[in-house]
Amino acid sequence: MSGSPPAASWLGIPAGSGFGLENLPYGVFSTGRDNRPRSGVAIGDQILDLTGVTGDPVHGTGSLNAFMAQGPRRWQTLRADLVTWLTDERHRRRVEPHLVPRGEARLHLPVEIADYVDFYSSRDHAENLGRILRPGGAPLTPNWLHMPLGYHGRAGTVVVSGTPVTRPRGQRRGPADDTPDFGPSQRLDIEAEIGFVVGSPSPAGRPVALPDLPRHVFGVCLLNDWSARDLQAWEYVPLGPFLGKSFLTSVSPWVVPLAALEAARIRPPRREVTPLPYLDDAAAEPWGLDIQLEVRLNGHLVSRPPFRLMYWTPAQQLAHLTVNGASLRTGDLFASGTVSGPARHQSGSFIELSWGGREPLELPDGSVRVFLQDGDHVTITAVAPGRHGETLSFGEVAGRVQPAAALTSQTASVPGPLGV
Amino acid sequence: MSGSPPAASWLGIPAGSGFGLENLPYGVFSTGRDNRPRSGVAIGDQILDLTGVTGDPVHGTGSLNAFMAQGPRRWQTLRADLVTWLTDERHRRRVEPHLVPRGEARLHLPVEIADYVDFYSSRDHAENLGRILRPGGAPLTPNWLHMPLGYHGRAGTVVVSGTPVTRPRGQRRGPADDTPDFGPSQRLDIEAEIGFVVGSPSPAGRPVALPDLPRHVFGVCLLNDWSARDLQAWEYVPLGPFLGKSFLTSVSPWVVPLAALEAARIRPPRREVTPLPYLDDAAAEPWGLDIQLEVRLNGHLVSRPPFRLMYWTPAQQLAHLTVNGASLRTGDLFASGTVSGPARHQSGSFIELSWGGREPLELPDGSVRVFLQDGDHVTITAVAPGRHGETLSFGEVAGRVQPAAALTSQTASVPGPLGV
Prior knowledge:
The structure is a homodimer of 420-residue chains.
Chain A: E1 26-31, E2 38-43, E3 46-49, H1 50-54, H2 65-68, H3 72-87, H4 92-95, E4 99-101, E5 105-108, E6 116-119, H5 123-133, E7 150-153, E8 158-160, E9 165-166, E10 169-172, E11 181-184, E12 188-189, E13 192-198, H6 213-216, E14 217-224, E15 227-228, H7 229-235, E16 249-251, E17 256-257, E18 265-266, E19 288-289, E20 292-297, E21 300-303, H8 314-322, E22 333-335, H9 350-353, E23 361-362, E24 368-369, E25 377-385, E26 391-402, H10 410-413
Parallel strand pairs in A: 6-22, 8-16, 9-26
Antiparallel strand pairs in A: 1-2, 1-5, 2-3, 3-4, 6-7, 10-11, 12-15, 13-14, 13-22, 14-16, 14-17, 18-19, 20-21, 20-25, 23-24, 25-26
Keywords (chains A, B): Calcium, Hydrolase, Magnesium, Metal-binding, Phenylalanine catabolism, Tyrosine catabolism
Region (Disordered) (chains A, B): 162-184
Enzyme class (chains A, B): hydrolase
């Protein structure tokens, strides 16, 4: 976490860019002149085209998966090479032609998602939801302090930032009703989260111990787990969240390498209950991360969720996920769960910001919100400390809410190939 | 469901084979002489090598996905061609060299699984579990009669029949304990299910209406959703099953085309509650299926679960899965949930067969079981009526329980590339 400051880049990166030499996040992009999706690295307000600068076809597959599958030694080598190429003036002539202005690029989903797991690791969030949804009961279920609770989400509906969020339809049951009705969700919400992308697989039957996180996790992104609270409330007992979540999950286009976050590593909060040995990180190198999120609704800052307060770390999440013998694949994505702090304005969801819809949130433009309205635009950003005082940006994950689609079944609109 | 009987095959298929001309299930196989995994069709005790007989590289990719993605017209055409080639003596000379004895083939996972969803659609099973796990309460949760409940499982741990089942470890908490301990599952169980494989994708925002099942579902397999009941019981509130299921899910190697099941289609049981319109199949063509399962433990028949009694049909499951706008991908797998009938010997899980472990099951060899022991071998088979009195076989999904693996972390056994 120290060492001499790196040489400056010949690129002339503006101070406070967030995309300096300490970051170098990976993404997949295309341009008007070349519409093939290919891997690149964000540097300042440019993207370095990795297919061009390396000549390696692994970067031309349209996702980061093939490169991620090469494993941590290869990730280290390329990262070191990138710093050399971007700081040593002798590489400038070779490298410069492969820079593309970020503003001209279209950003794609960076990873072909294998399995997507969503955890529930903020104690403040879990307690808030317990108090809102089960008033009078214990805020935490008995298992919460013993393991990072999680569930599998739908990998096929993970999309890149900017993809419109069509309001989902489904079954909803009001508190006074015996039976559900059907219609657009009236409690559409966000969940501001951090996602962890697995690069290097692990075989079945070989749990990933706490110190082994960096052998498997390639990098970190922002994630918005859009949630329909009314659908979720009606469906989730006993099998957990399903259609209330599976319509869309957005991720940021830039994956910050785990190696970029060395200076952000901190001790996680004190554990109230000593975890079982496979989760006990008291003697391990810490994997708390000092990432500060911000949530904006239609441009107004509404929340500043602190990732540093997360009770369970990504190392514990990965250890738990694999302790039963489950294998990991390149492209697996696991997310932290909603990041919330103890204060209302640190909440990573509107169900907390509006306390179950009972205390509307006032926006600076005079409007109020409980849950999301059609047309609303939500942006989640985050920063973390880099080395030498630099600040790392995670970019953003954003999306605009669109009205529920008209219910046209395929039968009505497409000629039937089977005549049924 | 009638029509003239088809011509016999020049192959001379034994009566009662289960793999006659009405079945023609697809799988992926390799042989000692040619170890490339490739697609084939089971016919009698042979496999017809589709790469050889068609010359089409779509069948040489190592999974059925590329062919399934071509859509229902293509599925129909090949199926019609196969019948012609196997019945018309004029094709014999060309086709016969591409037949491989089934006994000489190694069978692979037939489908690259995209998302895996597990439903919970047997009313008898849901009521049994409610009575066993929540005695005194209502056997069904209030939502059960209104929608096919489901959750996402781990796609990366879906394996082909025959893969050993290593007993998972995890957190378990006894009924008298305040805190959990850690160790091998002591309540390892099966769930006998039917799986449905999506061939043709559907776009986001376009729910698949009840009649559209055959546009999207390519075929049907057997599935064993191995379950660690002690891990599951401790973890599943409030996010649903996770590590109690994610260690392994086995599927049969043969995918029976949906088109083969025309004669097995029946009306599902009467619904106690009229479902919301998107799930109401009263006026639709029925998608109940008369599939009879059998479960064997170490060769002894222990259960005969009747799929015909399932409350929710695959058409309703698919309509529900997509009604919130979720897209489908080629390779998506959704399973019925445990198939159980009203009688004890129709139960698709040992937690039901032994009534929560309280009433041990006696086997003909004098041994007793509550849950699975190391070394136990479980086989699930199924048959369905074909046209013209033929019986279709689904083959089998089988697995043997192995002891929990020694807990060697990767750190202990592999040199660390990152030195952490």
